[in-house]
Design brief:
The chain is 29% helix and 35% strand. The protein is built from one helix and ten strands; from the N terminus they run H-E-E-E-E-E-E-E-E-E-E. The strands form four sheets. Strands 1-6-5-4 form a four-stranded antiparallel β-sheet, with no helix packed on it.
C-alpha cells in the first residue's frame, strides 16, 4: 500500500512540473515569434500576375524573373503572385529633433546625419528593412 501511495504521489508531483515546463516553453516561443515579427517588418507588396507574367511600370516580366526597381524594391515574378520587398534599411529610432534621414537612391540606403552638420552621422538605435 505504501508503494502505491508513493507512485500516486510521484505521478501527481510530476504533472505540475511538466505543466510548468510547458508554460515556460510556450512563453519562450511567444517571445521568439514576437521578436521575429518585429524584425521582419520589411515593406513588401504583392500583385496578381496575368497568364504571361508580371507587369511592373508597363513592363512584362516572365515567371521566375527577379529584378530591382528604380525605387529600391526587389521583385520576383511567381505564377501565384508578384512579390516586391524594399531593399532599404529604414531607421526608426533616432533623435528626430536634431537629426534627419537622407535617402540615397543609387545605393538604396539611408543615412542619418545631424541637421546642424550633415557630414556627421547620428546614432541609430533601431530600424526596419
Amino acid at each position: 500500500m505504501d508503494y502505491k501511495y508513493a507512485l500516486l504521489l510521484t505521478a501527481t508531483c510530476q504533472r505540475p512540473m511538466k505543466l510548468a515546463y510547458a508554460m515556460k516553453f510556450l512563453l519562450f516561443l511567444f517571445l521568439v515569434l514576437l521578436t521575429l515579427g518585429s524584425l521582419c517588418t520589411a515593406q513588401c507588396y504583392m500583385r496578381s500576375p496575368n497568364k504571361y507574367g508580371c507587369v511592373e511600370n508597363r513592363k512584362l516580366y516572365h515567371f521566375g524573373v527577379v529584378w530591382k526597381t528604380k525605387d529600391c524594391f526587389r521583385c520576383e515574378c511567381q505564377p501565384r503572385a508578384m512579390i516586391c520587398c524594399s531593399l532599404v534599411f529604414r531607421p526608426t529610432n533616432y533623435d528626430r529633433e536634431n537629426c534627419i534621414a537622407l535617402f540615397h537612391r543609387k545605393s538604396c540606403s539611408m543615412r542619418v546625419v545631424w541637421k546642424s552638420d550633415p557630414q556627421e552621422p547620428c546614432n541609430v538605435f533601431a530600424g526596419v528593412g
